[in-house]
Amino acid sequence: MTALSPPTDAELTRRAQAGETAALGLLLARHQAPMRAVAMSLLGYGHDAEDAVQDAALTALRRIGDVRDPAAVGAWLRAIVRNNSRMRLRATRETTGLDGLDHLHPRDHEASHPERVVEQHAMRDWIWDAMEELPEQLRLVLMLRHFSGITSYQEIANACEVPVGTVRSRLSQARGKLAQVLLTTATEAHDDASRLTEDSRHEAEVTLEGARRGRQPSEILELWPTDTELVGILSAPGERSHPFPAMRRTREKGVTQHLRHVVASRDITIWEMDVTNPAGIPDPCPPTLAWLMFRQNRRVQRLRVVFPNCAGSPADG
User: Fold this and answer.
1) Across the chain, where does the E strand assignment appear?
2) What is the dihedral of CA 180, 186, 187, 190, to 10 degrees?
């Protein structure tokens, strides 16, 4: 009996471009060693080289459809690693967005919107299922850096109330763990991540409409139990308060929020808002803000409201 020959790079690339996650997983596993060799040749042995390889894997997830010569996918992957490594070498200051990926900011009018790009290549559900396997702290920084408008290290540090160095460390850990999980889950069935996002978008719209009317419907009240805690800049240190009174005070001042973007996992949700202040209001609200919600069984346990464009210092711990 003749043994079956393994699929060629060209075959795997075409299957990956058709949406077969297992094929892309095989490609990444097959070329991981040469990709790492390129990174190490430029960056030496260490975390920077590993980060460059992991970033390249994430780029491949989103851009596999861009490969025009499927037989040369190995060279394409190595070129991504080389570009990432060179960017790290010449970087003299921090850049926003995922390192090496300049087109992943959530601008709904662009075809490069991260969720839209992932949908086009049928990899979205695979990525989000893998992200769900990460610890909460690692998943949060990854969601902010990759999929929200809160992308700079300082903004993420302010949102998480940790030092910038902690953000860098958590991102490095998150990328490494995500790459490992992706490779081990490529052949599994994945949940529909778009349904979770759409459900969260509907919840946000109903919540905002309830705030405008001064009364939240029962379906929203069930998701915000009495022990939900408002934490961060809008609450006093050591104080436990429910978010709804703060929403009511903001609304009474005439401040309105308009939903701009939603990022949702099973137990972390990010709602990004544009803010409109009435004319002449004292101490106006910043023009953008984000709700970071931490959930258990869909019910909100903690809400932190952050203002990405406002200067601030992260906590020392």
Assistant:
1) 229-231, 256-264, 268-276, 288-296, 299-306
2) 110
| 284: its two tokens | 């106006």
pLDDT of residue 104: 32
Judge whether residue 271 has pLDDT over 70: yes
Strands of the 299-306 sheet, one edge to the other: 229-231, 299-306, 288-296, 268-276, 256-264
In eight-state DSSP terms, residue 284 is P
Q: Are 140 and 160 in contact (CB under 8 A)?
A: yes
127/64 Cα distance (integer angstroms): 14
Minimum mean pLDDT range among 37-41, 118-122, 218-222, 257-261: 118-122
Place of tokens 């990759």: 146
- pLDDT for the residue 166: 92
Sequence-distant (6+) residues with CB within 8 A of 48 are 39, 85, 88
| φ, ψ dihedrals at 289, nearest 5° | -155, 170
Give the residue among 194, 171, 170, 197 at the shortest CA–CA distance from 271. Answer: 197
Query: pTM for the whole thing?
Result: 0.65
Does the pLDDT at position 167 exceed 60?
yes
pLDDT tens-digit profile of 59-87?
Answer: 777 778 888 888 888 898 888 888 888 87
Yes or no: say if 134 and 178 are a contact pair by the CB < 8 Å rule: yes
Contact 85, 42 (CB under 8 A): yes
Output 160 or 128, whichever has higher pLDDT: 160
Tokens of 286: 């910043």
* Lowest mean pLDDT, pick from 33-42, 50-59, 98-107, 296-305: 98-107
- Interatomic CA distance for residues 135 and 132, integer angstroms: 8
User: Which of 275, 292, 298 lies closest to 220 in space, CA to CA?
Assistant: 298
Domains of the chain: 193-306 (3.10.450.50)
**Cα gap 163→155, rounded to integer Å:** 10
